[in-house]
Specification:
Elements lengths: L8 H16 L13 E6 L7 E9 L7 E9 L8 E6 L4 E6 L2 E6 L6 E3 L3 E4 L4 E5 L2 E10 L7 E10 L8 E7 L31 H8 L6 E2 L4 E2 L2 E2 L5 E3 L8 E3 L30 E5 L4 E6 L2 E3 L2 E4 L1 E6 L27 H5 L7 E5 L28 E4 L10 H12 L2 E6 L4 E2 L9 H5 L9 E4 L8
Parallel strand pairs: 13-26, 16-18, 17-21, 23-25
Antiparallel strand pairs: 1-2, 2-10, 3-4, 3-11, 4-5, 5-6, 7-8, 8-10, 9-10, 11-12, 14-15, 18-19, 19-22, 20-21, 23-26, 24-25, 24-27
Bound molecules: calcium ion (2 copies).
The site of one calcium ion (CA) has 7 residues, from strand 3.
């Protein structure tokens, strides 16, 4: 587990930095008569938005100058991952910002500077602390960004004085951050596109039993998505953008098979595995106005833009495939987004498209709509990219939780495409904090032998 997935990891770091700052301060007088500071209020105490000014008020009966450190924290709870925490050091009159795994700073108040982190931005041009009597007020100008998008947050304050007496963390407000984009999705390709085609009566592929055996007839299905895994949202995330989203430059290390930029990637677009993820780091963006799907593999932010492995742009109104032999952001040359299990769609009671899944080994060939292979093997018993499998019609799914029944029903009607080399029978989905991970885990009761490959066309071998 990474450090930021530890429920107390970031707090430990926060305390550690605070202790370091204390060491750097003037010697703290020992006094038995010290009063503890009090974390009084956050104004506004409730609201919504991605950019706001907050005033925190703290008191120390010994006078505002006895205050040492005030911290303001936004998160769904005190201990969950993904918080943004800001700190004001009264003694030095400096600000600090925490996100991910480290503190940044010090920064001067009113500095003409925005401190960007994965979860938030501190606009220092409008950020200042001032005290009078027993009261210390800090004005914070904050932009709350992914991964806090779409979340109902609590706001907490913590105050500590020069002699180490502290208020403890106090919840003094709530704040909701709207999701990135409006989330209303255009149709994913025309109705007659392979992703949207009912294959429940398609003929069984003559090599079906060999394919299933090579993937693992006794291996259970695995939902490769859910709430949180390894400290990051579990699955392949996506976001929607309007047609006027600013486009930024992007460079690829597979430029020959990538659609050139610029791409409309927002600065806080969610990345698979989180900002510091070490996996495939996919970014999926749906331009809802222009009906375009932008997908990127191994995306890393660089100054002024992005650096990535490969990228593909799909016209959602067209059935055109990528050129034969071309990859996409996926090994099969397929779009990723249309094959994801998404929470909101499952809630409607039906998934009306094929899904995406991975297998440990593939053969050197592909079946349309796939256009790319990722193998050196000519073993005909291995599945080619783009092979479509369906759950056999007679498999009893009545005992599964409702979300799993929705997924299994889709697998009977639309099936799933071999899209990448990976875990056996790993089905892809988008992360969502509303998933019930235990329910999703029950899909493992369905195993490889419950599937059959269907014949959807010839294998293209270069
Ligand atoms: Ca005090
Ligand atoms: Ca002080």
């Amino acid at each position: 587990m990474r450090e930021r997935s530890s429920p107390h990891g970031w707090r430990g770091r926060a305390v550690g930095v605070a202790a370091l700052l204390l060491l750097l301060s003037h010697a703290a007088p020992a006094s038995a008569g010290n009063y503890r500071p009090y974390a009084w209020s956050i104004a506004p105490s409730a609201g919504s938005g991605t950019d706001a000014v907050f005033y925190t008020s703290c008191y120390d009966p010994d006078g505002w100058r006895d205050m040492r450190m005030v911290r303001l924290l936004f998160n769904t709870s005190l201990t969950s991952a993904g918080a943004v925490c800001l700190a004001y050091d009264q003694n030095t009159n400096r600000f600090y910002v925490f996100s991910g795994t480290r503190w940044r700073g010090p920064y001067r108040p009113r500095a003409n500077l925005d401190v960007n982190t994965a979860a938030g931005t501190l606009h220092l041009r409008d950020t200042v602390g001032y005290g009078y009597g027993t009261k210390l007020v800090v004005r914070w100008h904050v932009a709350l960004r992914t991964p806090l998008r779409g979340k109902d947050l609590n706001a907490y304050i913590h105050a500590r004085d020069d002699r180490g007496a502290a208020s403890g963390w106090k919840r003094r407000g709530s704040w909701s951050v709207p999701p990135l984009g409006d989330g209303s999705l255009p149709p994913m390709f025309p109705p007659d596109n392979p992703w949207n085609t009912d294959i429940s009566t398609a003929p069984v592929h003559p090599n079906s039993s060999n394919y299933v055996a090579s993937i693992g007839a006794d291996t259970g299905l695995h939902a490769d998505f859910g709430t949180v895994w390894d400290g990051a949202p579990n699955g392949i995330p996506y976001c929607t953008v309007p047609g006027d989203q600013a486009k930024v430059p992007i460079s690829f290390y597979y430029p020959d098979e990538s659609d050139p930029g610029p791409y409309p990637i927002p600065p806080d677009a969610p990345i698979e595995g989180g900002p510091s993820g070490t996996g495939d780091r996919h970014i999926l963006i749906v331009d809802t106005d222009n009906k375009l799907l932008y997908e990127v593999f191994d995306a890393h932010p660089v100054p002024g833009g992005w650096s990535a492995g490969s990228g593909a742009i799909f016209d959602l109104t067209s059935n055109a495939l990528r050129p034969d032999g071309w990859t996409s952001a996926d090994a099969a040359g397929l779009p990723i987004f249309p094959g994801l299990v998404r929470y909101d769609e499952v809630q409607t009671g039906a998934i009306n498209h094929a899904l995406r899944f991975t297998v440990p080994r593939t053969q050197r060939g592909y079946i349309h709509p796939a256009t790319h292979f990722a193998s050196y093997s000519d073993d005909a018993s291995l599945p080619p990219m783009g092979l479509r499998l369906r759950l056999k019609a007679d498999v009893d799914i009545s005992g599964y939780p409702q979300p799993v029944r929705v997924i299994l029903t889709a697998l009977k009607v639309y099936g799933m495409f071999v899209a990448d080399n990976g875990g056996a029978w790993y089905i892809s989905g988008a992360p969502d904090m509303r998933w019930d991970d235990d329910e999703l885990h029950e899909i493992g009761g369905v195993s490889g032998r419950d599937f059959e490959a269907v014949d959807t066309g010839p294998i293209h071998v270069p």
